[in-house]
Amino acid sequence: MLNLKDKKILVMGATGGIGRETAILLSKLGAKLVISGRNIDRLDEVFNLLEGTLHRKISFDIINIDEVSKFIKDIVEFDNIKLDGLVYSTGLIPTMPIKNTDYKFLHNIMLVNYFGFAEMVRNFSNKKLSDGGSIVALSSYASINGDKGQLAYSASKGAIDSSIVVMAKELFAKNIRVNAIRPAIVNCEELNLNDRTKELVNLMQTGPIDPKNIAEQIVFLLSDCSSGVYGRCFDVRGYLS
Hints:
Elements: E1 8-12, H1 17-28, E2 32-37, H2 40-49, E3 56-59, H3 68-79, E4 83-88, H4 103-124, E5 130-138, H5 142-145, H6 151-171, E6 176-183, H7 195-204, H8 211-222, E7 233-236
Parallel strand pairs: 1-2, 1-4, 2-3, 4-5, 5-6, 6-7
Helix pairs in contact: 1-8, 4-6
């Protein structure tokens, strides 16, 4: 049985569909949450849906990557309780043809989708901030089979896929596990049902993925039930090849 009672977990990107459902489910399982996102109004909405008490909400934009160290340090020093888990659901989902994908655009997407994740993991691994735990990143099916216009997005998610293998090996000695979920089309507010998306959904045959299902898998990877799982990407893509 999943048991996350009193586990202190930071959920980045809690204002998105998957982040929101993950935070809500974690609160139902007794976790002590710190939720973060850019949109203060949406962050308030998610916070009000959490069960239990002692949760915190902090508006933070990962684009301010130089402030990540202070951000996590403040989270720990606020109650002098170290982190047990981290969910990185922060991300941009851009569509841009190659002719318009210059290095500045690439850098901005990589900053939010990947550099921010790497910086969060680097700080989480500090003994002053955690004594071990589990880290789960949100990747994407686009990392292994990106579509037209997804050069920047696919590259940023591919960077996550390859990095978690290295991170898991290096952080094993610190009792930190790192894994990722790699979903295809998710049924959330960010979903753009254009002709190509509809085609992919048809190929999946299962319909768009319910973000609650992704949240359940994230929670499993955060829990001790997945204690033997290191450096893995879990595909959730129906019948997509």
